[in-house]
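step=predict obj=Beta-ketoacyl-[acyl-carrier-protein] synthase III n=334
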Amino acid sequence: MTPVLRLAEPVAGARMLGLGSHQPERVVTNDELAQRIDTNDQWIRERVGIRSRRIAADDVSLVDMASDAGARAVKDSGLDPSEIDGVLVATCTMPNFIPNAAAQTAERIGIRAPAAFDLNAACAGFCYGLGMAADMVRGGTARHVLIIGAEKLSDWLDWDDRSTAIIFADGAGAAVIGPAPDAAAVGVGPVAWGSAGEMNQAIRILDGHGSKAGGALHQEGQAVFRWATTQVAPVALRAIELAGLTPADIDVFVPHQANLRIVEAVAKKLRRHGAREDMRVADDIVYSGNTSSASVPLALDHMRADGRVRSGDTVLLVGFGAGLSFAGQVVRFP
């Protein structure tokens, strides 16, 4: 007789238990950038909506930022680090890819022997990781998973390239995902994800372009803008549909903070499809810049601090970026 393999016991679903974030101390204004490159405050604000951004010091690493954000999320969840059995770090800016960021981050937080791995879906990374973390919990392969989006984009920028230097920044955001006790308490909806591989050259690293990392981030800005303003709203609507909701059920919309004009365009399309006029929309890019995989959890944590998202709110998250990759889901805010 062929032996039957035993599977982990699944649970009703997953929910978000805690949130945390980290931003570097240094604030870089548009006026400061204008001292180096041909730009000015008005030009930047009109095109991308950014007034300032945070840049990490040379001696602050991506793992430093990930560890601080992750520790804050674990504390916020009310769990002890020993209760975390999975750590995922979404990032596309590690200076070296071995060892991974996740195992180093777990060790610093005091999480012993968890499943630990990195994933790279660029600016969609946190939403990809959240989908994976929720499935790990729901399938019974982990009980509590820490998902962190962390980037040190400043190491991968050519600071003389106006098209990227004005946009990107550093930071980390994290969430703890755990089991829902029953179907009524499920707090993370199904993920709507995919990719547009034909756009793979729209955002890429070019070798030997004056960055600290030895390669510099390059972006076809207009191509990305056209794609995002036409293709992100359908992903958001699909995530709402998969969760069994309607656009009118969404209290808060937190898209990847790529460009304020993109954020506003997507929110406008959602309202055309039934989202409420009082739906609160994240605009963290104004003072944080584009932090890639960190932008969604950073924006969500900042909205909580400002009182713009509250316990029980229905929140729509959407990430999109290099690849091109995209992902979104609806969550119930803890």
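step=describe
The mean pLDDT is 95.
step=end
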